Amino acid sequence: MDLSKIDHIGIAVESVDEASVFYRDVLGLELIGTDEVPSQKVRVAMFKIGESKIELLEPTSPDSSIAVFLEKKGQGIHHIAYGVTDVNGTVTELMEKEVKMIDKEPRPGAGGSKIAFIHPRASGRVLTELCQH
Ligand code: ZN
Prior knowledge:
globular, about 130 residues, 8-stranded mixed sheet, about 40% strand, alpha+beta, binds zinc ion, 2,3-Dihydroxybiphenyl 1,2-Dioxygenase, domain 1
C-alpha cells in the first residue's frame, strides 16, 4: 500500500456556492478551484488546508449518489480520500486482499485526478476514496 496522506475530505452539500461562504469567508481557506465531474454527476469546490483539501460536493442530477446521500442523511461528511502514487496498483493490491471495491478500475475524478472508491462494507461504513494526482 502506498497511502501517503489524507488527500481530502469530501463533504456533501446542497449548494457549493452557499457552503463555500463558510470555508472561504469564515475559515479563510483558499479556493483551489471548482470543477464538474460528469461521471459522478457532481459539482465540486476544492479548498486547500495544509497539504490536504476539503472537497464540497453538490449533486447536478437527482440520481447522483450525492443527491441520494443528501436525501438519506442530509449535509455532512461523505468520504475520506487517501493520496496514492499508483491508484491502479493500489486497487489491484486491495482486490488481491479480497477487499470489496465500488470501482474495480480507477475513473476520472475532480481536477484531472484518477480515483477509486472502496466499498463502505469493507471499511467499517466509512466511504473511502483512493486518489492519484
Ligand atoms: Zn473525493
